[in-house]
Amino acid sequence: MPRAGLDPAAVVAAGAALADEVGLANVTMGMLAERLGVRTPSLYKHVKGQEDLNRRIAALALGEAAEAVGGAVQGYAGRDALEAAARAFRGFVVAHPGRYAATIGVEPFGSDDPLAAAGQRLLSAFSAVLHGYEIKEADTNHALRMLRSLCHGFATLEAANGFQWSTDIDESFAWLIAFADRGLRAL
Question: ∠ CA(36), CA(103), CA(46), 5° rounding?
Answer without folding.
Answer: 30
